[in-house]
């Protein structure tokens, strides 16, 4: 059984930032599990805790979005998750990342909407890897269960004018092969559904790992109008005390 990501989560992740494709050897016989001592994230997984027995979970891979092969590509890792869901995640080293680098390609504008899009990548030869989630596996009734989690915080507010606003903040980690500057402004409208969406990105990244945040604000008005704003920004440091929400799981197979 697999529960899909909420539409809002997908929109926030794909609208501003592109993924990265695999380069070089797509199937390295021995994955490099060396880590970067300067990029260590402390987090806690929350959500459907009962799916995995306490203290058995291990982070098995980072989820990277790839331009060539689409979402949910994996970069192997191995980190223990404590019984209370906390973990310390050391990101892959430069040598471990290298086989996964590909030219940075911004996500395309939605085909179902009319969009104006202005973007610039300097230098245009930039190569990246973008991590947007993690896979973890553990024991459930003596069988293996595999789950996916994403670093996200969110809240819903009912406004005085009767509208409802959802605010969400997603953390992403981008590895860049060289220093770069990324800008994008995109506005999309759909007159049939009364939707207007605006996305803004102004990022300065250094060579190596960078912490980024995508903030989404989505408001639904009583008359049916919908407004969404996405903004991508740099976040200093690797981040401590991050909350990773479990979105879906793959149920254990009898006899596994």
TrEMBL record:
Annotated PROSITE patterns: PROKAR_LIPOPROTEIN
Keyword flag Signal: yes
Signal peptide segment: 1-23
Protein name: Lipoprotein
Organism of provenance: Deinococcus sonorensis
Keywords, alphabetical: Signal
Protein origin, superkingdom: Bacteria
């Amino acid at each position: 059984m697999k529960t899909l990501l909420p539409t809002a989560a997908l929109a926030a992740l794909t609208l501003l930032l592109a993924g990265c494709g695999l380069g070089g050897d797509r199937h390295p016989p021995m994955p490099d599990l060396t880590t970067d001592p300067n990029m260590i994230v402390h987090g806690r997984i929350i959500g459907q805790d009962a799916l995995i027995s306490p203290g058995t979970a291990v982070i098995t891979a980072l989820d990277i979005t790839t331009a060539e092969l689409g979402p949910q590509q994996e970069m192997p890792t191995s980190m223990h998750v404590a019984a209370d869901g906390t973990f310390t995640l050391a990101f892959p080293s430069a040598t471990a990342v290298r086989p996964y680098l590909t030219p940075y390609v911004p996500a395309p504008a939605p085909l179902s909407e009319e969009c104006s899009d202005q973007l610039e990548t300097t230098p245009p030869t930039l190569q990246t890897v973008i991590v947007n989630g993690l896979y973890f596996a553990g024991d459930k009734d003596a069988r293996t269960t595999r789950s996916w989690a994403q670093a996200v915080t969110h809240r819903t507010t009912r406004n005085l004018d009767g509208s409802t606003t959802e605010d969400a903040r997603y953390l992403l980690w981008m590895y860049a092969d060289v220093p770069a500057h990324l800008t994008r402004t995109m506005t999309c409208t759909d007159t049939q559904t009364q939707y207007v969406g605006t996305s803004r990105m102004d990022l300065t990244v250094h060579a190596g790992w960078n912490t980024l945040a995508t903030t989404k604000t989505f408001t639904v008005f009583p008359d049916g109008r919908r407004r969404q704003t996405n903004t991508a920004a740099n976040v200093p440091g690797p981040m401590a005390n991050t909350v990773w929400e479990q979105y879906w799981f793959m149920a254990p197979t009898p006899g596994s």
